[in-house]
Specification:
Elements: H1 6-10, H2 13-41, H3 46-54, H4 61-83, H5 91-107, H6 113-125, H7 129-154, H8 166-191, H9 193-207, H10 210-225, H11 233-260, H12 267-280, H13 292-303, H14 308-336, H15 342-354
Helix pairs in contact: 2-13, 3-14, 4-5, 4-7, 4-11, 4-14, 5-6, 5-14, 6-7, 6-15, 7-8, 7-10, 7-11, 7-12, 9-10, 11-12, 12-13, 13-14
Length: 358
């Protein structure tokens, strides 16, 4: 098993380059979020939104939060299922790791919570960070495919579907290209591991200096083991069905939040809203999807006939309901596990350190 030499990892050239890249990601995310928020809130009468928020029935958030956390349990089971070829991890031990990861995505830029999740799993269970990151990427691909399914199923049923702005159509088209292409590539990698190994070995042996070849080979080999769950049609079907359940549960949470404001949006249109929002969160932005969520939610709701004030009030409460409970629980699990903020740096460094292991 790889032993972590934290000081060496944090001063390595790869980590220094990655640190510079992440700083650029932060500033890019700040600009994107600022622009998206300006587009979402221009022309808005703030006093009307505040009045609308004061009259909302927040009791509806309780069942909404309950449904959301049932979805988090489903996410935990899905990851448990993907990790089985590597090591069976009990759901009770895996649930806090999943929550910590989502908390990290809400607080750190560039979805760094995924790295934190892999780091904590390695620390707790000894599973290679590279292999577990492969399973996380598989999760994201299936999430994207189901979001696209939601959009394609619900868009024709939406009364104002053809009035959806071109910018949202671009998001759907770009998301389709991205996720379906990634799914094809990962299915090929999982189905042809020997061929894939020959392909990346060909490039590694010809393009990298000799001292880097063995470590990078080891890193990619461990990554390939994380794709084992895609080598069975039964496994893929279970992952797809679980992902479908996860996002139907989150759409049900949206439905509960609409009742806090007493306005009618059919469930199928909320599937469209959920799909477009989550496709838009692939755009680089500040942690917690600030701006991207607001613009897409308000735009889609207005296209579906909801006035700007009510669409904005709903979006503010929805964003808070999606962000706050999972973040607070993640901070609790983080404290209980004696994790520190510096562990995020170690999480980022762990990929570098792993390349030194065998």
């Amino acid at each position: 098993m790889v032993q972590f030499e934290t000081g060496e990892a944090l001063t390595s050239p790869l980590f220094r380059v990655e640190h510079i890249v992440k700083r650029w990601q932060f500033w890019l995310g700040l600009v994107v979020s600022a622009v998206f928020l300006w587009l979402a809130l221009r022309g808005l009468k703030l006093d009307e939104v505040i009045a609308d928020l004061r009259t909302a029935n927040y009791a509806w958030l309780l069942p909404g939060a309950a449904v959301y956390f049932i979805g988090v349990l489903a996410r935990t089971w899905r990851w448990h299922y993907l990790l089985q070829p590597l090591k069976p991890v009990p759901l009770a031990r895996l649930f806090p790791v999943v929550v910590i990861g989502y908390m990290g995505n809400n607080i750190y830029p560039a979805r760094a919570g995924e790295l934190l999740r892999a780091y904590v799993l390695k620390r707790n269970e000894g599973i290679s960070a590279s292999a577990s990151l492969a399973t996380v990427i598989v999760e994201r691909i299936f999430d994207g495919v189901v979001m696209l399914l939601f959009v394609f199923v619900s868009l024709p049923a939406a009364q104002s579907a053809w009035n959806v702005p071109d910018s949202l159509r671009v998001i759907v088209f770009g998301g389709s290209l991205l996720f379906f292409s990634a799914l094809i590539v990962f299915l090929w990698l999982a189905a042809r591991p020997a061929t894939a190994a020959r392909v990346y070995s060909f490039f590694i042996d010809r393009l990298l200096p000799g001292r880097f070849r063995a470590p990078v080979h080891g890193l990619l080999d461990r990554f390939m083991t994380g794709l084992a769950g895609l080598r069975s049609l039964r496994h893929m079907l279970m992952i797809f069905l679980t992902t479908l359940l996860i996002w139907l549960l989150e759409t049900t949470m949206y439905w509960f939040v609409t009742h806090a404001f007493v306005f009618e949006v059919p469930f199928v249109q909320l599937m469209l809203l959920n799909g477009v929002i989550n496709l838009a969160t692939t755009i680089p932005a500040l942690p917690g999807y600030v701006g991207t969520l607001e613009l897409t939610s308000i735009t889609v709701l207005m296209a579906l006939g909801v006035d700007q004030t009510r669409a904005t009030s709903f979006t503010v409460v929805l964003h808070a309901a999606l962000w706050l409970p999972i973040t607070l629980l993640g901070l609790y699990f983080m404290a209980r596990a004696s994790l520190r903020w510096s562990d995020l740096r170690r999480a980022a460094a762990s990929r570098d350190v792993e390349t030194a292991g065998t």
